[in-house]
Amino acid sequence: MSLLALMAAAAVGTVTVPAPVGNPNDWFGASDIPKGEFQAGNDGVFVIKAIVSAGGKIDDCRVRSTGASRADREDFCARLKRKAKFGTAINESGAPVYYVLEDSYAYVLPDSWHRFGAPPEPNAVIDVEKLPEAKAGKTDVLVNVSVDATGKLRQCNPAANSLQPALGRVACGQLTSSWTPQLEHNAAGDSVAYVRQLWVEFRAKAAG
Q1: pTM of the full predicted structure?
Q2: Does an H or E element contain 158, and which?
Q3: Which of 65, 73, 121, 191 is least surrounded, with the fewest CB atoms within 10 Å of its CB?
């Protein structure tokens, strides 16, 4: 689908988070496993934060936590930049913007990789007196947010694949009043408007 067609298809006010192009589990192979970890017989996980351009290529990448060396972390990001490709992120105005991706990639010896598609912990926690009704007892939800270059939250809506859109709308209402977005920068150091997905968990306040 062309960029113009994609923009026309996105409803005004709806934040669209791009999907990866192809299968992310195919982006890495046995040769991409850090040699030192391979020789030591260790499985491992790379937890990353990446800034993806409106064209779908990774502009900046940082490994946030791993047991690998600095050289291995830098090498992983370099390989991810070469291999990863995403669709176009669309903000609430229908404009293409940067996409902030938080993700986890695990390697399991001898040669397999697995993409989790989420950070290891929720991005935001909402404390409530009583947990809301939720399907199958799950009180966490995915929402898409749009943030401008000054760090202001512009829009929040339940993720397109959300199984609990009503709970997502509740989460967005809470985030609008209490969540402070982080300024994000591209590789050149410029503050950018972006969209991203947040994993939000509701937790009951402890009785006191």
Answers
A1: 0.84
A2: strand 153-158
A3: 121
User: Contact at 8 Å (CB) between 197 and 142?
Assistant: yes
Residue in the block written with tokens 């991005």: 123
Of residues 110 and 194, more confidently modeled: 194
Q: What burial letters (b/e) apply to 158-191, b meaning 16+ CB within 10 Å?
A: bbeebebeebbbbbbebbeeebebeebbeeeeee
Comparison of pLDDT for 121 and 62, the residue scoring more: 62
Q: How crowded is residue 123: how many other Cβ atoms within 10 Å of its Cβ? A: 18
User: 52 and 39 in contact (C-beta within 8 Å)?
Assistant: no
- Closest among 124, 103, 199 to 158, alpha carbons compared: 199
Contact present, 192 and 52 (Cβ < 8 Å): no
Residue 126 CB neighbours (<10 A): 20
User: What is the rounded distance in angstroms from the CA atom of residue 152 to the CA atom of residue 184?
Assistant: 11
